[in-house]
Amino acid sequence: MGHKHISTSANALIIGILLSFIFITPGKAQFVDLGQDPSSVRWRQIKTDNFQIIYPDFFEKNAQYLANIYEKLYAHANTLGTKARKMSMIVRANGGVSNGNAGWAPKKSELYTAPPQEVSDAWLEHLCIHEFRHIVQYDRVNQGFTKALYYIFGEQITMAIIGVYIPMWFLEGDAVNFETSVGKSGRGRSPEFLNEMKAQITEKGIYTYYKAVLGSYKDFVPDRYTLGYYMVGNSRIHYGTSIWQDALTRVGKRPYGITPFARSLKLTMNEKRDSLWSSKHFQSLFINPDSVKKVNTHCDAKRTLYRDNFSELQQIWKQESDQINHTFDTIVTTNKLYTNYHYPTLTSSGEVIAYKEGLAQEGALVILHPTGDEIITRTGTMYDYKFAYNDATLVWSEYKSHTRWTHGGKMVLASYDMRHKKYRRYPTQENRYAPFAVGSNWGFVEVDKEDNASLVIVDNTFEKEIFRVKGTGDELFVHPSYDGQNNIITIVVSSKGKQIEAIDIHTGKRTPLTAFTPYEIDNPIVVNSQIIYRGAFDANNSLYRQTTPQQFGHNALTSKFGLRYPIASPDKDSILFSFYTSDGYKPGKIAFSKLDNKPIENKTFWIADSMTRQENWQFELTSDSTYASRKYNKTSHLFNFHSWGPIFPDADDVDVDFGLAASSQNKLSTLFLTAGYVRGKGYKHGNWQVKATYKGLWPILQLEFKSGRDDDFTNDYAIRISGTQQIDTVRTTYKFQRTKGIATVQFPFNISRKNYYRSITPYVKYEIQALTGFDFKNFYLLDHNRWTPISSNNPYTSVIGKPENIKLQVMRYGLILNNQTRMSSRDIYPRWGQRLEIGYEHTPFSGLDYGNSKWVEARFYLPGFWTHHSWTLYFGHQLKSSKTLNYYGNQINSPRGISLSGYDLSTLRISYAFPFWYPDAHVGPILYMKRFTAEPFFDAGWEKNRYHDTTFQSYGIEISAATHFFRLPFPINVGFRTGYETKKKSMFVDMLFSVAFTI
């Protein structure tokens, strides 16, 4: 295949653009603020030569457990060939979120310890193993030239190089491979995780590399974890572990190259790819392997590797799926887009209820109809889609945010009374999951903040506790159900594995019904004295039934890409479930009498097993050491300077200025500080600047200081010409020193409920400015309505003086109210939403009196004529008390294409946004386009000033595209706005550009 040559100038252009991303990326994402714990939390720490664990004092026992896990991980010689350097781990144990992250600016890892309703390894082990791999990856990159750059820029440069050069699919895929290879399970042995890609590749074909990496609004695309698992794992099988070691090494040592990661892959593949395609295995998969190889070959080695991996896997998966025939009925649904139906449940009236979510649906409980689904109620955020139905009442677990603290929310039970159409939520101090009906009462799993799990039964008011049994050690109860004969049937997950267990609700006696297994098992139910459950023994999600205690039973039902969520019909004569397809989980049904009784054949996960052999190490705690712990003082650890260099990031304004700055973010993410010298907006000649935000208390406190030269002070003078009645007007601009200090106090309240994000934020801002050292800069004479420059020697200038120093103090008060629905992936704006802000500012202190300014602005989002269309209405009004002074800037938006000025201003903006094209197309490696949106608008504005009282209009259209540049994960929205405005009676064109630094 011919190679394209890039000219030197094009090379320079690409390098320049990439360097811009390198410097802007850390600036935009400098402060990774993932939230704070309640201020009342007391912290402790464990410090060793390898790591530091910072944790709430109530988490001591589990902190010791974590320390033993990390000590084991640090001692392992891993397949990246790198020993991890010392890292701080922050334990977030107050909330209901199950997650983790690792970053380098600042360098730390955060662990969200609430265990999810999943049947992988014990949660804390799984969490530490996965996040630890990220630490190893980052340390592998931090070598050579990158390490040298660290001394110039700090930690931000390492994270920037990783973000620009290393695909997200590698970072997450490699971590999933590691968790799978050293753990007992891991996502690499979870059919739920694996089958998304398997179904897509088999039924819809291999998407372009750009679509697979950057996603789509048109089709469901498996995430970077799934893509990365197959890319990293399958490549290791064919090329060995060195393929990824070498790639990270080259990025670290040669970040000045355009594509060091892909270049390393190309060098590795050049050595082995021909022999791979000549192997018996590859030759047997394709009719004409040479032609497939040729089509798969691209200049970018990542694309070549992607095509090779999934061309091979596609043939293997097609052969596997062709051997499976469906023996069940499909319940009819009507959806053009990817949609999931979870836990289809048949009611006594014959209706089927399911939890529905997908590309076009943000999550709701629905009644299925052949012609369309009927929404019963939308829900809050559900991390596990299990719900229970009994006597026209639906119960589920959803996330309830804390009023102030990000890490203070809980998973709580919520219910919906279908008869009275009433939604209720039941807040508690503990996390509650997986509700199930127990006669007229309700059961659920409860986990406290120390990760101790219990099975609980309460009465139908959810107030009186009837029964409780506690787990021991790291046990977690998953997806329990009631058998109707005084037993709870549940999965128990621990470091030993998973097993099915029966618990007597009168005596609390626990009876194991199976041995422990490393395979996934969940959702056990009892039907006609048999236990039906989902299992992964065949390396696929299938239904199994146990007829004899202590045995796992027989394979009862399977499908091409797995099935889940067995639910018995009211009369127990049939089973409902969800089966996976490339268009999502669909509801199915089979008569109980038609279930199979096939022997269980334990199959292996061949990629996972290969990774385990390569890693050659199985994680297992063989010791239980006790580490010294002590108090972690929040006050003495307020500062943690991690980055420095020629940029000044502003996390609140999402802005980057250039200069020389140092940035600090403490490990608990309560104090954010940036200080330095900046050449940026408002100060053409540069300024010293300090900005600090403290979020460790309920009010958020922000202090900002700026001092530098300014040239924007202007005065007009009326000068009478000696001996005449003529008066000339001279405008003088002055240069001076502007020093500004701002103190802001915000009181955020998060009152989100159900599927609505709601917040109330009152704030107070104090601003003091000093204008000193005035000196002349320029003079202008008003001549025939035009300002003409005049020299400083002109006679007019001799009568003009310099202003005295000015000190101005301003107070601003405001209130922001926000309410909007949760959005689906394809929504442009919220389906319903309102945002209201009212504000007032004045100069109440001694000194200059600039009067006051008050304003109100409101924005409304309304559904459009079709799905994902949206009306946006905006209204703003501002009134300034002074008709001559214009100290206060505009706080409301002007009509598009028009700038309003005056003391009495109003704006009305109306627009209608709709998507009109989902191309999923790319222009070489530079641009990938996902969606085009049009937004016609009509705006009106009214301004009143000393000269006129006039209304203006503008109208036109905005066209924008959701894109990615250079295959970077950050979504970029680019476009233009064009229209006609009546103030100047002219056409206007504006460029639109925005970057979302979220991935």
What does this 3D model show about the protein?
With 999 residues, the chain is an alpha+beta fold. It has 15 helices and 50 strands. It has a 19-stranded antiparallel β-sheet that branches. The chain has a 6-stranded mixed β-sheet with strand order 4-5-3-2-1-31. It has a 5-stranded antiparallel β-sheet with strand order 23-24-25-26-30, with no helix packed on it. A hairpin with a 5-residue loop joins strand 7 (339-346) and strand 8. The protein is globular, with a radius of gyration of 32 Å. It starts with 7 loop residues before the first helix and ends with a strand. The model is unreliable at 1-30 (pLDDT under 50).
Let me know the largest β-sheet: 19 strands, antiparallel
Structural class: alpha+beta
Instruction: State the total count of DSSP E strands.
Output: 50
In terms of DSSP E residues, the strand content is 35-45%
Task: Report the C-alpha radius of gyration, rounded.
Answer: 32 Å
Number of helices: 15
Note the gap between the termini: 34 Å
pLDDT averaged residue by residue: 91
Q: Helix share of residues?
A: 10-25%
Runs in which pLDDT lies below 50 for 5 or more consecutive residues are 1-30
What does the overall shape look like?
A: globular
Short structural summary:
By secondary structure, the chain is of the alpha+beta class.
Topology:
Blueprint: H1 8-28, E1 43-47, E2 51-56, H2 60-75, E3 87-92, E4 98-104, E5 107-113, H3 123-141, H4 144-153, H5 155-165, H6 168-182, H7 191-203, H8 209-214, H9 224-239, H10 242-253, H11 260-277, H12 280-285, H13 289-296, H14 301-321, E6 329-330, E7 339-346, E8 352-358, E9 364-367, E10 374-378, E11 387-390, E12 393-400, E13 410-417, E14 422-426, E15 431-438, E16 441-447, E17 453-458, E18 465-470, E19 476-482, E20 487-494, E21 497-504, E22 510-512, E23 521-527, E24 530-535, E25 542-546, E26 554-557, E27 563-568, E28 574-581, E29 584-591, E30 598-599, H15 606-615, E31 629-631, E32 641-650, E33 655-665, E34 671-680, E35 683-694, E36 700-720, E37 727-746, E38 749-750, E39 756-783, E40 786-790, E41 806-821, E42 833-842, E43 852-863, E44 870-880, E45 904-917, E46 921-923, E47 927-944, E48 949-965, E49 972-981, E50 986-995
Parallel strand pairs: 2-3, 3-5
Antiparallel strand pairs: 1-2, 1-31, 4-5, 6-29, 7-8, 8-9, 9-10, 11-12, 12-13, 13-14, 15-16, 16-17, 17-18, 19-20, 20-21, 21-22, 23-24, 24-25, 25-26, 26-30, 27-28, 28-29, 32-33, 33-34, 34-35, 35-36, 36-37, 37-39, 38-39, 39-40, 39-41, 41-42, 42-43, 43-44, 44-45, 45-47, 46-47, 47-48, 48-49, 49-50
